[in-house]
Amino acid sequence: xxxxxxSIRSILNEEELKAPSSTPDPDAPLELTxxxxxxxxxxRMPPEAAQPATPPPVVALPDGPPQPQLQPxxxxxxxxxxxxxxxxxxSAAAAAALGQLAQAxxxxxxxxxxxxPGPSIEDVVREEMRPLLKAWLDQHLPGMVxxxxxxxxxxxxxxxxx
Length: 162
Fold this sequence. Notes:
The chain is mainly alpha-helical. It has a domain at about 130-160. It is built from four helices and no strands. The chain has helices spanning about 1-20, 40-45, 90-110, 120-160. The protein is flat.
């Protein structure tokens, strides 16, 4: 039995010596080669389709009355930008829609606040709290007043004696 185990150990030792180590040495520098590069989407697409998308235009909110909305013009692509998930036209359309939303919100914020006739939230809360507060005061106020009066009487009596 020991001979079989020794034989298996020697075979394993020989295989370890023949095969390169599968775990890299942590102290060894990592060597980067061309085979490690990942093919990007722009490398697989034809050059005219691999152009990066343009950034959405910046929309400034006007202080005056709303102006008619202009359609954004696609800008020339700049080199060095990453591929975008959106088509430049879709991006421009989304930016225009968000610009319209921002203008609508700005107009709404500038609109005067008119109080609607009827009770306010404060009035409703006051009406609901009044019976609760009355019940709490009815239950706790007499004991609180009695305790505070006794404490004050004791203080006055101690001052007159001392």
